[in-house]
Amino acid sequence: MISIKELDQQAQQIVRQAGQNAFEKMGEDYQVDTKTNYTDLVTTIDRENEQLINNQLRKIDPDSQILSEEGFGDRQITNMQGHVWIVDPIDGTMNFVKQHNNFAVMMALYVDGSPVLGYILDVISGRLYHGRRGDGVYVNDKKLNQPANLGLRESLLAMNRTLTLSGNSSLKEIAQEAIGLRMYGSAGIEMIDVITGQLGAYISNLKPWDLAAGRMLAEELGLVVKSIDGRSINVLSSNLVLVATRQVSRDIRQIIN
Amino acid sequence: MISIKELDQQAQQIVRQAGQNAFEKMGEDYQVDTKTNYTDLVTTIDRENEQLINNQLRKIDPDSQILSEEGFGDRQITNMQGHVWIVDPIDGTMNFVKQHNNFAVMMALYVDGSPVLGYILDVISGRLYHGRRGDGVYVNDKKLNQPANLGLRESLLAMNRTLTLSGNSSLKEIAQEAIGLRMYGSAGIEMIDVITGQLGAYISNLKPWDLAAGRMLAEELGLVVKSIDGRSINVLSSNLVLVATRQVSRDIRQIIN
């Protein structure tokens, strides 16, 4: 059976291949469809990327389950036993379409429910953030340091539109208290900015494919990945998630309690 | 007397020099002070850049007035007669400090009140967006096309934190109606994204140095730079400004009327 270390090497190639595909096609004609409403897009490139990734994963890890955003993976995943790959073929599809920037390919491997491998590729910069449990987090070949443990009033915070405009008063107070508020429209890019210390916190409603890779990398760097009141989260559910330094997480619990 | 075209050539060099200075110093030790409150920063590098720019402008255009953010320019500018340079030595100081990314050097020349030259340097990417009235807008040596005239529901909108959290109900409706909301923390970066069509609109409270260069470039590309209800703005005042496609500007007037 293939080792986790070998899977890691091959998975990096797969993420890069999907990134290359998105990069080459972003200036060409492709079809854009809406999903739940006019702000929720999917393109033929998302679907192509998903099939490309899933086909490759089936080859290198045939007994695994695959959970992926656009539905070409395994339909029903109800348990996390064994190997489960969680895939976002293009995270930030709106930015892919409108900006040709600020989008990512994300992938993670969970083994018996625990995050073991994580990948976020910032396609335009070509920077691949990747990690293997116990081995730290790298950007391309460079190892990342743990971000400084700053508090909320020293930290930039990213929060999504819905929470900022329509969230409860605690969320608004948190957004007001941070040293600045940012919104990039891609969980992958926002996760990258937290793990590199450019943001001190990220709060958003996340689906499994938005969360899986960032959670792996953030926890490996000693960051907190929890609900905003400090409870554990289930990667198979939609969650209101906080990714933050330990101090920001404490400061936020003070505000909501 | 030096021609506008010659001033343009030299001004580009000055902006690049200031960008280089910020780039070289951003990883070093420098002093950070707060201005009006803990979210409003100024560093010794802002001040260095301002002196560098102002000294050079005095050499190439000695009879001009200079209005600059950190106060080394002419103290009192009450009229826009003749040449007025408006300078932001580092726009997005918070990002400069916290992110080492997403900040800009901005400069503009107004002649008898009209925008004539404009410069926004995205320091990290090294892309200089510049224009001379009647000659179009360039990124480095490449001429930019006019952005597509999309409406609000097809456009990403950038709006600052204060307006998003505490603005009136019309502003919230505008933020909700756009296809997506973004917040980058630098007027310069947000202006760049509007003139390149990555955003369809930007709404913020802007001081003269936040507005001067972006206004010049946006108007040269046929974009609207007005108050949100369509009135003209005075570059010497603080303004609530909309920079947008013509269609977004119409859609927004529909919402507020």
UniProtKB/TrEMBL annotation, chains A, B:
**Whose protein is this, by species?**
Limosilactobacillus albertensis
**Could you cite one Gene Ontology molecular function of this protein?**
inositol monophosphate 1-phosphatase activity
Q: What is this protein called?
A: Inositol monophosphatase family protein
Q: Does the keyword Thylakoid apply?
A: no
Enumerate the InterPro entries for this protein. Answer: Inositol_monoP_metal-BS, Inositol_monophosphatase-like
Q: Give residues annotated as binding Mg(2+) 2.
A: I90
Q: Which GO terms describe its biological process?
A: inositol metabolic process; signal transduction
Q: Which PROSITE patterns match?
A: IMP_1
Gene3D superfamilies (alphabetical): 3.40.190.80, Fructose-1,6-Bisphosphatase, subunit A, domain 1
The cofactors named for this UniProt entry are: Mg(2+)
Residue positions binding Mg(2+) 1: E69, D88, D91, D210
Q: Does the keyword field hold RNA-binding?
A: no
Per UniProt, which keywords does this protein have?
Hydrolase, Magnesium, Metal-binding
Top-level taxonomic group: Bacteria
